[in-house]
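Bench notes, bay 3.
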Amino acid sequence: MTVQDEPRITDREDIAKRLLRSSAKASFDPLVEIDWDAPIDRDRYATRPERVSLYGTELWERLTEEQRKELSRHEVASIASIGIWFETILMQMLVRHAYDRDPTSNHVQYAYTEIADECRHSVMFAKMVGKLGAPHYKLDPVTQFLGRVFKSIAHGPLIFGGALFVEEILDQIQREAMVDESLEPLVRAVSRIHVVEEARHMRYAREEFARTWQRHNPVARAYSRLVLGLVVYYSTTRLINPRAYAHVGLDPREARRAARRNPHWIDTKTWAARKVVATLGGAGAISGPGRYFWRKAGLLGRPGNRPAVPTRAAAR
């Protein structure tokens, strides 16, 4: 697909009907599907070592193997806390999206179905955080405030572009984790459920983003690019709460600086975002001032090692 060729949009009702059918066949109750009584295996990593934000740094070399595994558990818990935060925002946005639409339509009924899924996911993530022995990594006041603003002002492309970004990032990390038998079984079980159900959510968001993006004029698109860039920046730079580093004896400020500059961590974020960058970049949603925030968040690669992001000029 080239940028000047608008993507083919399938029938909204037909897609929603398929997603509703899929939900009926493959939905899970995490409280039943997961063995919450099983003890955490502290001899295993919660995520692959190379996905830990400090991997390869001098601070990583200071840590014992036990501390590295502990840090992996806290980083997974921190990412799960971000997931809960954004899923709560998404549920509110989906309720607003459905508010004045026909509830007898498949489209709105799937929105309600996704809200129910997200409720279960938030409970599942919260229980996992507790089992991993981590606290609830609450976001800083500025990000909390911006989240309140975003959920109140977001319209079509912002609702579904923001949702697609967060869902794709988590999906890539969890797809890798769920098939790695060396990792903590609880994390793998949570990842498996989330990946299966989020596949439907991403299809819904991808279709609706493309549909609403095409209807917007250039001014509205420019506004959406900027706000989406801010959402991406604040979500990505808060993935790892600095307090996670303190739990393994590191200075949070020093560790945060090291992670921000760590080429391995930048590459991990670029890898996790590659599909959503291709989707939104191909639509022309990553350009102008908003693109600055995508790059500042470490999602467009390191200088000299940058993945291509489709632009209209390049497409021509």
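Next record in the batch:
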Amino acid sequence: MRVMGVDPGLTRCGLSLVESGAGRAVTALDVDVVRTPADMDLAQRLLLIAESAEYWLDTHRPTVVAVERVFSQNNVRTAMGTAQAGGVIALAAARRGIPVAFHTPSEVKAAVTGNGTADKAQVTAMVTRILGMQQAPRPADAADALALAICHCWRAPMMARMAAAEAQAAAAKAAYEKKLKQQRAAVRAAARTGAQPR
């Protein structure tokens, strides 16, 4: 599985590509940070981010795109910019038929460090160690994009198993309810005719 990790942001947008191997083995294939100037028109900033993401999608052809979900931030303006940047990338992936998964910051931190409240330094240190990198990825947005891709590589199999189990449980429930309905119908029919229900 080739996962494109996205740490969305208007000023700095982290992009990464990670490939999963056997077990929990993951390999970093590429990482970059797209920067847009704060004094540029919003629409133009989003266009620059979208064009960079589209280039990545067409060049690297990921299996899935993992984007950080905007959970909560004190600065509403920053949260809006983050959501808009993530949205244009999700749209670019959807247009190419590439599935998009969203992970909250705490899910990413928990997957990579084992602690959902880890700070950026801890995330960067663990990403560097997990990927066997000689140097820590800089800036933090690059490390965060790699962490998102790693998180998805490790969480996706579990999420798929959970979805399969939920589907199996739903099918079993539907079969049980159908059987119950048939039994009730048989009892009602037997009561009308005076026969013993089978």
